[in-house]
Amino acid sequence: MQTVLFFTLVCPMSLRKTAKVAGFLLGLHILQVLPVYAQTAPDFSGASSKIDLDQPISPLGNRVDAFSKQTEKRGAALTVIVQARPNLTPEEQQQLQKLGVDPVAAAKSGATVTNASPQLINKLSGLNSVIRIVDPRLRKLGNAVAAQAVAPRKRGTLTKVSVEILLNDNLSDSQIEQLASFGVDPKKIVFNRASGNIDATKLEALANLDFVKRIDQPTSEVPFGTTKGQPLSKVNNLLGVSLLQKQGLEGKGIRVAIIDGGFDIKDANLNAKPQIMHTETFNSGEESDGKADVSAGDLIGVTHGTSCATIIHSIAPKAELALLAVGGKTGDVLNAINRAMDLKVDVISISMGTSVPTDSFLRSDGPLAREIQEKVTRKGIALIVAAGNEADSLVFTPDGSRQLPWKKGKNWVMIDPTGKKYVLFAWPKSVSEITLFAAWDDQYDPDLARTTDLGLYVFGDKDFKAISDEDQLGNALPRETISLARPNSKYFGQPGVVSVPNSTSLVTAKDYDVYGIAIFDNRANGGMQGKGVRLGIVGNGSSGQFNPKSISSISSLSASAYALSADTIVVGAVNLNDDNTFKIESYSGRGPQMDGTIRPDVVAPTNFSGTAFDKRGTVFNGTSAATPYVSGLVALLRGQNPSLTIPEIKALLKKTTADLGDRGLDNIYGAGVIQPLSIFKK
Predict the structure, then answer these.
(1) Low-confidence ranges of the chain (pLDDT < 50)
(2) Which of 437, 610, 633, 631 is nearest to 535 (CA)?
(3) Nearest CA-CA partner of 397 in 519, 572, 483, 559
(4) 470 near 533, Cβ under 8 Å?
(5) CA nearest 463: which of 150, 56, 60?
(6) Most CB atoms closer than 10 Å: which of 152, 244, 262, 504?
């Protein structure tokens, strides 16, 4: 029987040796674009004949799999939860009842079986009706976290695990003290979340606290590089920003927080020019020195943040800037947002995001998106966030009702419009780590019952290379992620990362390995009918290299959960052509969100020289550069009319754009390209 493996994301770094990046897992990106390097085009011919999806899959979760092998141990027993697919036949119900399992409970969300022996577990795992058998003590833990919690270790050794903890609302003082006893810094509990490094042997006890909803591994940042562009001063003159400044609109009295990977306040574009009101660093697992990273080294993270600050300062030169450097994990960003609120800022600009789903990736009604709306934007703070740069890496299937008939215990979701139940993709050998994910439309709050439970497979020549099968019927979020690393990769052998060989018999071009990806529905006839599934392939910042074959590339918004709040202003990127017209950048993130919300809201220019990137012989591009441009304009607007609410500001920005693309709102340009002079005429 094959063991089911569980994974989260690798944060790729091999192309950026000098980048100051910590950790891996569910990569949070600084949203700037790395150019695509030419590759020999892959040839998929013949590869499909080598795909075999009808392989046995173990339903056994962490700890249960190892326990099932203890057949010689007399009296061995374990309490487990047995999950079965819905719509069991009478015969299948009888089989479960004979083995002491309540079939109704098993088909709903899981039946508890106490004192289960290894022999009983092995009998249950052989039934086609059984989806999963898990240890209830690990059910609140993400699979990669659970794997580290149960990993054998020598007595006396301690292993720290970096985690993000989802918590109940309004914790009491005693509950906060309990968290502190596990090593959680009370100062880092924000938006019902906490992050920290926890002793692996204490993870189960932490998960068993009734006010802890879930424990997963956190997100991390990846900075990128770039190429050619327009002088920032030229764009400001062309769009009329310089004229607005001559009229006295300079952002005086307005506070803008810039959340980014680092800042160099000695840079010539910033030195002694802006009014820097506050600097601070937020780095998970490390003590903050209370100051932002101001090293003048050629670190892309520092260059990136400095460039964002330069753009805002060029538009609103008298605005006060709070430079909030983050270590890269989602918890760091949330702590920085919280500090910005304490500083009573008027605008928060974030040119960071995730290409892999977080808890409310697809909807504006996810728990974090709702918290951001209630605690930030409704308190009068404008939140401006980049739409993301993964439009040519992410793919989307809008109709989850396209499914194959039930077969051998698994219902393969039709993700290929040509009628196959899998998709081939090319993995360039120049890319050392990749992450694949599936995310779909279902409840995001762990307290709410879900109707869907999908799994994600990556396979080579007639064998599965990796499987991600989180327990969505427990409280896992509606997403699956798999990280793959080559033997020469920085992350080869890391926990939560599947190491794969440099070649496979599916290889059809010397510069590529060819693999397949498939999604299966554990529930079959469950809740996937009519729901959309989003599928993504991301690696090393190499957008567009993976050539997924025959997938409908309809929607690919890559944005963090904090970007999806209804009042957040999401910004896409357009290039200013030589004839002073604008065209969407191919990588610019686009919607809709899974709840139908049109994104981005607006688009703005990118590809700027005249920033810190000039030192690198490059320009500043991506939706990273477009976002602070809009942030600077919102700072001017807030200075002119402080009484405007955030919904009013957002509506005004959208009303005054120059419409591009389809007439009216669309999911590529949003309302259109920003028009500074029109904003201030209204």
Answers:
(1) 1-27, 35-38, 222-227, 287-291, 294-299, 541-543
(2) 437
(3) 519
(4) no
(5) 56
(6) 262
CA distance 651 to 629: 17
3 state SS for 579-641: CCCEEECCCCCCCCCCCCCCCCCEEEECCEECCHHHHHCCCECCHHHHHHHHHHHHHHHHHHC
Count of CB atoms within 10 A of residue 237's CB? 12
The DSSP bridge partners found for residue 428 are 512
CB-based contact 600:591 (threshold 8 Å): yes
CB 151 within 8 A of CB 160: no
- Name the region of 25 (left: φ>0; alpha: ψ -120 to 50; beta: rest): left
Q: What's the whole-model pTM score?
A: 0.87
Angstrom distance (rounded) from CA 103 to CA 64 = 20
DSSP 8-state class, residue 10:
-
Helices (H), 300-436: 300-315, 330-342, 367-375
Q: Which position has the token pair 């754009």?
A: 657
Q: Is 363 helix (H, G, I), strand (E, B) or coil?
A: coil
What the block records as the tokens of 24 is: 């891996």
What are the Cα distances from residue 152, in Å, to 148, 155, 156? 9, 9, 12
pLDDT score of 24: 38
